[in-house]
Amino acid sequence: MVWFVLGFVAIFLIAVYAYNRFIYTYWWRQGIPYISPSVPFGNFWNVITQRECFAEGYRAIYDRCTGPWVGFFLLHKPVLMVKDPELIRTILMKNFANFHDRGMYVDEKNDPLSAHLFSLSGQKWRKLRAQLTSTFSSGKLKRMTPIMVSCTEDLNLHLQECEDVVELKEILASFSTDVIASCAFGIQCNSLRDPNAEFRKWGRKMFEPGPENTFRSILCFLYPSVASILRVRSMVSGVTEFLHSVVRETIEYRETKNISRPDFMQLLIQLKNHGELQDDEPDKQTLLSTDKTSEKCYYSCSAPYYPSWQNPGCQPIKILFDIVGLTENEVTAQAFVFFFAGFETSSTTINFCLYELAMNQDIQARLRKEISLVLDQHDGKISYEAVQSMEYLDRVVAETLRKYPPLGWLNRECTSNFALPGTPCVLEKGTGIVISLLGLHRDPRYYPDPDRFDPERFTEENKKSRPHCTYMPFGEGPRICIGASFLNMF
């Protein structure tokens, strides 16, 4: 009996060793240079043990690689990091047909909040993107501006009541919560006055560090199918119920009282009831636009991911969809991702921007001068037009997003076999792709002295001198962040 047990254990260990050896030689068998992994964490021991975040882990790999790409392992999952700007452009834009998904966790039945635009794939993503694209048009942002200005006035009053020295992190988190809650849900939560407001409380829980949140995030990110089988929700308990309640009550109240408000929730209600936005052209079309001068093709919302990039002359392509209204779950999921992505992005970016302005007094003085001059031209009032005319402010924000990108990487999944240009190597369907934004944005080849804060990097002349796809704080191509224009207005 003892020999039987020992034999079984030996066979098991040999099988585990053989499996690991087979998995961890994947890139070698593909003929692609790779970073040697460690069993069983691959190349992400420091991330798994929370010594560094994913963005820092990806940047470390980016800095170690000298070629245009390198293979590595997320636990047992082979992933290709792409560094070459032209290949990045190929993946995100030219050959989008081969990389149209992110390969992220979605479980509409057991975790309805996961079925949002950022995570959806295939036809569902394409249709939803087409419906949502115009929600952040310049006209709609213009109508939302008074809501943001009202929250800004509350912030000014709050700061006037504070001491000479204040801790801005919590104040800006509360301010971001107020703006997002008002623009996304139409709710005045006043978390600047009440730190325990419901939205602020749930916002803290969403981003609360700890083993449970870390395990949930890693499982959903690396093994989405396992997370679905185990019915692991992407958010902490209570968030789904809270947001469903808020959305349901808001919809019922507005429809019962016949109330309309110029916010994101009103647009989602239109999509729920009609399947399209009523103040836009009532045509079920999506057009592929082209800037022939730079040979850059891009989608005005959600064009197809078929031979569009190879379309002769890049002529516009019409895609027809049946008009179907959003379900309440879909409305809640989109409102959730608006809150989840917008809150962290805006709060963190403002924090870093103010830090850099404090450390660079000359830049701060120049920016203050521009803001004063522009406001004088607009009767001292903040408006959409006033903000759009602040060119130096735009450069300051762009440099902040370069140095501190809200999301430190982009990920894609190879959706059909793809031959790496100029090589015999073929990326197999299902292969993960990572682009380190932190690595690109801090690469001295594109940004000399990358740790220096210099808004002049974003003059028109300097922007044209850099390769395309070396600055992508909101992504690029058809899956570029749909709310980028809103976040830039923040």
From TrEMBL:
It is a peripheral membrane protein. It is found in: Endoplasmic reticulum membrane; Microsome membrane. The keyword Nucleotide-binding does not apply. This is Cytochrome P450. SUPFAM superfamilies: Cytochrome P450. Signal peptide: none annotated. Its main location: endoplasmic reticulum. Its cofactor is heme. Keywords: Endoplasmic reticulum, Heme, Iron, Membrane, Metal-binding, Microsome, Monooxygenase, Oxidoreductase. It holds the Pfam family p450. Belongs to the cytochrome P450 family. InterPro entries: Cyt_P450 (IPR001128), Cyt_P450_CS (IPR017972), Cyt_P450_E_grp-II (IPR002402), Cyt_P450_sf (IPR036396), Insect_CytP450_Detox (IPR050476). CDD domains: CYP6-like. GO terms for cellular component: endoplasmic reticulum membrane. One of its GO terms (molecular function) is heme binding. Heme binds at residue 481.
